[in-house]
Design goal:
It is built from six helices and four strands; from the N terminus they run H-H-E-E-H-H-E-H-H-E. It is an alpha+beta fold. It has a four-stranded antiparallel β-sheet. It starts with 20 loop residues before the first helix and ends with a strand.
């Protein structure tokens, strides 16, 4: 009879012959159950710890930037090409060259962002004109690097 269970051990019929059939069957079921749980745990652990390949340098990882405006009714942002927001603020880049898309988003992150309603834009910026809202966000918003 074994004193402790090891993950790689199995209960062979020879080792359990002296045990009662019911107890022997229970040990086999227990062994199988433990193996199944350990397999699932190791598979889950492998998925959770899987990290993307690191970039050689930090600058090559940044491809997009968000320009985020912290308003009284939430956060609004636009997604831009990396490095273009500073150029836009200095007058060296046009809005079309700066923006990835001309969509205004509301939320803290890209993954949970929604399109704000015209009423929300009106309440926050005093206008629902998309171009005017984007200009206000680009001129006074916080720059946030987006890496992936």
């Amino acid at each position: 009879v074994r004193t402790h269970w090891k993950p790689k051990d199995t209960f062979s019929p020879a080792a359990s012959e002296s045990l009662s059939p019911i107890y022997s069957h229970s040990l086999h079921v227990f062994d199988f159950s433990c193996r199944l749980v350990l397999h699932k745990m190791s598979a889950t652990s492998a998925l959770l710890t899987k990290q993307p390949a690191p970039h050689k340098d930090k600058e090559s990882a940044i491809q997009l930037q968000m320009c985020r405006f912290h308003g009284k009714n939430g956060q609004f942002f636009v997604v831009c090409h990396a490095g273009k927001i500073e150029e836009f603020r200095k007058g060296k880049a046009s809005r079309e060259d700066t923006l990835e898309t001309d969509t205004v988003w509301k939320g803290e992150h890209l993954r949970n962002a929604v399109h704000p309603s015209k009423a929300e834009l009106e309440n926050e910026f005093g206008t629902s004109n998309n171009d005017e809202v984007i200009d206000k966000i680009l001129k006074s918003g916080q720059i946030v690097n987006v890496t992936h």
